[in-house]
Each structure stands twice: as C-alpha cells, then as structure tokens.
UniProtKB/TrEMBL annotation:
Protein name: Amidohydrolase-related domain-containing protein
One of the protein's GO biological processes: secondary metabolic process
GO MF term set: carboxy-lyase activity; hydrolase activity
Keyword annotations: Lyase
Pfam family, one: Amidohydro_2
Source organism of this protein record: Halococcus salifodinae DSM 8989
Limits of the Amidohydrolase-related domain: 15-282
Amino acid sequence: MESESEVDDRFAPAIDGHVHLMPDRLMRAIRDALTAEAGWSFVHPTDKEAMEAALSAAGVERYLALPYAHRPDMAADLNEWVLGRAAESEMAVPFATVHGDDDVADVVEAAFAAGARGLKFQCPVQECGPTDPRLDPAFELAAKYDRPILFHAGTAPHFEDSPHVGVEQFETFLDSYPDVRAACAHMGAFETDAFLALARDHENAFLDTSFVTSTAASEYVGSTVGIEDDAFETLSESIFYGSDYPNIPYPYAAERAGLLDRELSTATLRDLFGRTAERFLGER
Ligand SMILES: [Zn+2]
C-alpha cells in the first residue's frame, strides 16, 4: 500500500463523497457506540482543520460533509453548524439532515436556503428510511431544489433486522422520486448485487464505495464484498468514491488502495474519484 504522504495522480484531485463532519461531542458519542457494538477503535482526527489537512495531503480536493441526526430536535442546529464550518472551508461540500419527528419541511427548506447541497440519512440509526412518509416533505424539496440524497440504506454492518433499510425500499424511492439523484452508501452492502442492478436500471441511482472497497473491508465487515472489476467499469458513472473518514478503524490510504489495486481503466478511475460525484451533485 502506498504511504499516506504520497499523492497518487490516479487518485488526485479526488472528491471524497462520504466524510462525517460533526461537532466533537456528537462524534465522540458515535465513536463510543461503534466501539461498544463492533469493538472498533479510531485514530483519525475529528476537527475540521486536522481532517482537511489529512484529506488534502492524500490528494482530496473536496469532500461531502455529512451530518446525521439520531434523535428529533437536533438537525436544525447541526445543519447550521455544518454550513458554518463549510463556509470557512475550500473543501467541504455541506450536506444536511433531518429526523422523521422534526418539522421536516421547515428544517430542510432552511438548510437548502442556507446552502446545503444535499441530504444525508443514516436510516437504521435515525430510524427513518427512503419510504418513510414522514420524510416525504424532504424528498419533495430535494426534487424542487434539485439536491441529491445519500442514504445509508443497506443492511451492513449489523442492520439486517432494521425495517428502515434494504433494496426494496431504495427501489421504491427511485420509482416514487425519479427526478431525485439518490445514492446508497457502502455500495448497498450486504445486498450489493441487487443495488448494482438498480444502478444499471436507474439513471439517478448511485452507490458510494465507502468502507466496502477498502483493503481492510473483509477484516471489519466479515465476508468480503465480492464486487467484480467489471461492475466498476460498466457502472463508473453511477459509483463514486467515499471513505467514511474519519470514522474508519484503519488508515485512510486503505480506502483508495482497494480501488487502485484493481485492474481499472484510467477513465473509470477518473469517474470513481471525481466525475461521478460531480454528476451526483448536479455539477455535470
Ligand atoms: Zn458514514
């Protein structure tokens, strides 16, 4: 694996489509939960300056800054915090979130008006997913303002029993909101093949690679997600690189190494590491 300090021009300039930027107290709570549930330990910084220095040193030019709200009445402040950090950043592309029990339309409308570029839902943790009728106002505003949505809609790493995830729900969303660009994090793991099939059939369906294509994936999510190189080649306009940084229990370089180690064409790597995220954001 390349060292953290060496910038690989097959990777840079990259967009990291899955980074968590949240206040320290919240990050600590999330990490404590992951440590308790999965035994993971974390070495990466959580403050914006140190995170951006590390991402930038790796060759990342911009990143999607993703919050999520695990309970009601916190999303509005959280969104405002993320937007504030992004305003003083050259790298952060701010996303917003909302909880199903919030005044959904108000929270989302305010976030979009203040510059949020899309929405993020950590469905199993937030206990509201792509078919939750409480979120319809958010989805309608995403369509109206042409803002994409990133869902953690897959069953990995330990959400097989959650009623808020799964490929059927994601497909229902795509059919209900055909104009909204929607991504499923972690390539839809553990239902990756079914999510890849959806990406083949729906122009507005996207997948991010976070966690599951890293060289460390099999160690942390059990069975290796066996994605063929051909899937990246044929769906490169629907799959974008993401990392889940800084909440990953392994070096940041492992995320890109898992893709760079494959036999992928230069054009496919440019899609994965930048162009497809731009398409998801509506920039191309
Ligand atoms: Zn994440």
